[in-house]
Amino acid sequence: xxxxFCSFQLKLNHFKMKHMPNIIHALFVxxxxxxxxxxTMAERLGxxxxxxxxxxxxxxxxxxxxxxxxxxxxxxxxxxxSASIMVPCPWFPEIAAYARxxxxxxxxxxxxxxxxxxxxxxxxxxxxxxVLSLVDQNGYFYPSVPDVIMKAKPNEAELEMRNQIKxxxxxxxxxxxxxxxxxxxxxxxxxxxxxxxxxxxxxxxVLMDGRIYAMDDPVLKTLLDENTVVLDAIYTIEPxxxxxxxxxxxxxxxxxxxxxxxxxxxHLAYDDAEMQGVTVDHPEWGAAWRQADxxxxxxxxxxxxLESNHIITVTWRELRDKVVRSN
Length: 327
Hints:
alpha/beta
């Protein structure tokens, strides 16, 4: 009987040693999905555990002059409190100059691996011969995320994203976070690992939610710790919702927003000749779409809905300085 017990104990200890990391990770995942981690994040930022926290985030700065003008106006005069910059795009120098002159605004990088418009194109900041898997026969980025998933070599994608970050710093931008244009940088597992590695390397939060914990990769798991920022929810309007009315979508979203750390991704520009040319034959996320976003988020109605639903706007800068760089 004693021998049986000892044998059982040895097997139990072996099981614990072998499987405890997975058990701990599973418990961590459970905490994430039950909201415990999000509540802790709110408290770490100095807010009540049940606060509704929201980053209102404007994408695509640097894309065009119209995009820059509208986004700057919103950052200065509306609840929009964060934005991200596309380093490879033609109007990057303009927004970089603005960032240098206005260092308190919350500006991150929209890491870019695609060039989606019909005639308005760009390519990598790296030398093309060092990232051949990222470019087409004309030297531009591919237009779609599936192209990136199929063709991009992870080491070349990582090199290009790192060079975009380095270029932003070289231009005097106080980078607050990283996110992914069209989601291309998180389109497959090895790109996700590169994305997280860069966040860790530069001490920056990266846009991601709890789905990260469902990815079974040993390297990825080493990049997640108590100072990793993981959002509870990421929202953005899709074409079907836009057709039903962007004002309705955003109003419903704010009225139903749950406690936790949330991000809303929007696109601000003017419906002018420049933006119509950039987005020709592409009504989704086109010039009229971006004007509609601008009109709603700079309206008094937007401010009133946020206030009446007790939504607290927070920034990536807070998350960078109080969480990611807290040690």
